[in-house]
Amino acid sequence: MGMKIVLLKTIGDLDLKENKDTIITFFEDPNEDVAKQAVNSAKKMKLAEATNPLLEKVKKEDFTKNSNSLSLYISTLADLPDGKVAAPFLETKFREKFNNADMRGQIALYFGTVLYTEAESALMEVAFDEIQPTTLRCYSMNTLGKLKSETAKPKLYELLDSLKKTAGKLDAKKAQSLKIYAIGALVTMGDKEVFQELNEFARDDDSMVRLRAIEFMGSLKDPKALELLEYKRDRDPSPKVQKAAKKAIDQINGKESPIEEEKSIEEKPEEEPK
């Protein structure tokens, strides 16, 4: 087993595409770790031939359970050529509310990577449903931003307004995640009105919300933000926020490359208490 894993990893690292059939064969290895490494290698090599076999493997998985393997398979489909072919099947699984929330969250991110606009209504239903898990809502908002959803835009502003009105009443971690992802979606859409929201949230009591708002300001490169960013660089009580403000100033002044697009989902949102 260990030798299989090492060899599969080496094939992927060296991009030995002449071994693509062997890699795909190992998708069905009875050992889960071997199968996962085969999928990882196919992902690294971006094997177009792996798309349909991997989709068939995914169709046999149990979506009602949290599974690291299934998460890998879904993220790999998002990165493979023609991986969008899996979208109709995954949309069905996403709409089934009895399926595991983490798996549905991975599917939401998949939709954003392959830009599957047909899932907009399903994502809207989840993103603005208060009884849905926070992480799932956040990932759905993230994807709505990538899909440039005009339908979601007013709902995102309504959510932000609601969060302002309920400040202090909602669980802090839940509120933090919803604020960050709602603003991030609007920034990704390129909405011109989002600057005012960023201006407000750059003064939020939560230092993480301030930090993310400032990072988004940097990515927008709007000179109107410089005065506030300079104040935050010099006066904000959080050293991390001060550092982010300095970086944002450099970005606006053309001295540094933009923050990566996926920055907003590097850290998984905190779930509300059970």
Automatic annotation (TrEMBL):
Superkingdom in the source lineage: Bacteria
Signal sequence range: none
Entries under InterPro entries matching the protein: ARM-like, ARM-type_fold, PBS_lyase_HEAT
Name of the protein: HEAT repeat protein
Basic and acidic residues composition-biased segments: 257-274
GO molecular function, one term: oxidoreductase activity
Pfam families linked to this entry: HEAT_2 (PF13646)
Region (Disordered): 232-274
